[in-house]
Amino acid sequence: MMDPKDFKDIIYEPEDNGIVTVTLNRPERKNAMSFYTALELKHAAKIFDKDKKLNVMIITGCKESNIFNSGGYFDPRVWKEIPDKWKPEIDLKDMASKDFGLVYWDISKPVIFAINGPAVGGGITFPIVCGDLIYMADDAWLAMYFVKRAVVPDFATTYLLPFIVGLAKAREMFYFGDHITAKEAEELGIINKAVPKDELMDYAREQAFRLMPPKGPIKSISYIKTIINKAFRDIISEQADHENYGWKKCIITKDNRESMAALKEKRDPIFIGK
Fold this sequence. Notes:
Elements: E1 10-14, E2 19-24, H1 35-50, E3 56-61, H2 77-81, H3 98-106, E4 111-115, E5 119-120, H4 122-130, E6 133-137, E7 141-143, H5 157-165, H6 167-176, E8 180-181, H7 182-188, E9 193-195, H8 200-210, H9 218-250, H10 254-265
Parallel strand pairs: 2-3, 3-4, 4-6, 5-7, 6-9
Antiparallel strand pairs: 1-2, 7-8
Helix pairs in contact: 1-3, 3-9, 5-6, 5-9
């Protein structure tokens, strides 16, 4: 197990009151998640779940960045920065983040997301699948940008999002990648509540305290989470396999290469359907 003191991409801050705050801390790349970020987040979840003194995790983005999470970060140079002892735990073919997502799906304690800025691609699919409660700054927005990169979604959201917002709306979000405001996300049921940005962390902490003693029976809540998640687990696992197959097919297309070139050149991609 990793030592939280060695985390490079996230900050792990446990408190004596039973809350641990995990902060995405790569502002220079807009908190985009690499495979190594995912590995740190996975270890953070395991550490949290085993720590009997901790009851609730809150995940947010660093204040230095104006964005909660800008999605995936696939710069090959990151691989050279990863300590050799952790490389065997990383599956570069798991583009759908199946292993990462299932770790969060399986932990018994509640996880709260405090989304303090725009959440793009994996920046919103991560909270949808890995969070129990999602609160979002009212000036933030989310978008399923996968289509803009000519790939497919991840974290099994191709199953969960239609379950949440309905099939027609989910297709629209996936097919176009349009911005959804925090208020719209609340109305659609994607998040629990849009909160003024300067009140977001205080509100998330208030909700955390409601889940654990003396205000909440954390053992009962943990059983509720486990029972709910068991009903979906096999579907989540299988759907992520389907998404990984889609990623495998999409990342070799000319449209994907064009989208990446357009991103570097800061222009709109010109797709050809190949």
